[in-house]
Amino acid sequence: MKLTVFSAKSYDRTALDAANEDRGHEISYLEARLDADTAGLAEGSDAICIFVNDEAKDGIVDRLADVGVKGIALRCAGFNNVELEPAQRRGIRVVRVPAYSPHAVAEHTLGLILALNRKLHRAYSRVREHNFELRGLLGFDLHGKTVGVIGTGRIGIEVCRILKGFGCTVLAYDLFPNDEVKQLGCEYVELDRLFRESRIITLHCPLTPETHHLINADAIEKMRDDVMIVNASRGAVIETPAAIEGLKSRKIGHLALDVYEEEEVFFEDVSNEVLQDDMLARLLTFPNVLVTGHQAFFTAEALGNIAETTLANIDDLAADRDCPNEVKA
Ligand code: NAI
């Protein structure tokens, strides 16, 4: 199959080429993001492969169909950036990688919690300046604290497992409670109670109309003072201006973001440019905010699994057979 990979980085190429060795798909790589201007570059391809910041919305899907594309392979789990209905209408099949390493994201989440709590991001720079002062670096024991986990699917359950290892009390919220999570000793509760009682709240639900801005001013108001909020799910689950207000009023004591509502600059080096995103610029001024650029998934194991599943999905599309990872409207 002829496959065009959008937003391709060197690590994507390495992983996909390795997974393609015994397959022989014809893969071409583009650095460009998929958008209205670049969709035409897919001409001559049977399928395209896209990542989280590529937009396959209505008009773009039509353009892809016009140039002969019959498949969209997401090399990620979330598919909120693809409009499924027009794709289905134009006969474009959409496949994704539902799971590649829940451990990668869960472990990064704990990395964010630990770094932010113990102020490792500040300690690192301080010590390099030969400043060994401890004032300002005070943290708290995780042991015995209550942590709220919103979304207990593949990633959320691993987060619950690790938190139980730290001796935390875990309150969980999910539309579909999971027995395995209960067996770990976590308690499913209503969202309001989770907001009220949690010292730390970590988000692992997908971005859907119901979870869009789930963490807004009302929700933040219900939380305990000095709450830590961690988001490694999708940016728009948090309403960023409300989080900024919460930080300014000190209601939010710590905020860790691996994802952000406007990930325009994510995955790019814009260190020589003027940052145009005022919300992101404001977030980066807070000493108690830690931002990573959507890197929670980024482990060697995850990249290998993503490439393998993506090309297995492409095999299914090429053979015109059922694909277990197809998403439908
Ligand atoms: P999953 O599908 O296994 O689990 C999602 C869970 O969220 C399910 O249990 C589902 O019932 C629950 N859920 C859905 N709607 C909900 C709602 N309104 N309220 C509460 N719970 C709700 O997905 P997985 O693999 O655990 O991934 C979760 C999310 O993490 C993905 O949708 C993706 O957006 C994000 N993600 C982020 C990555 C990163 O690098 N930062 C990497 C991979 C995924």
Automatic annotation (TrEMBL):
Keyword Oxidoreductase appears in the UniProt entry: yes
Provenance organism: Stratiformator vulcanicus
The organism's place on the tree of life at top rank: Bacteria
Record family assignment: Belongs to the D-isomer specific 2-hydroxyacid dehydrogenase family.
GO MF entry, a single one: D-lactate dehydrogenase (NAD+) activity
Gene: ldhA
The protein's name in its UniProt record: D-lactate dehydrogenase
Domain D-isomer specific 2-hydroxyacid dehydrogenase NAD-binding positions: 110-296
Enzyme Commission number(s): 1.1.1.28
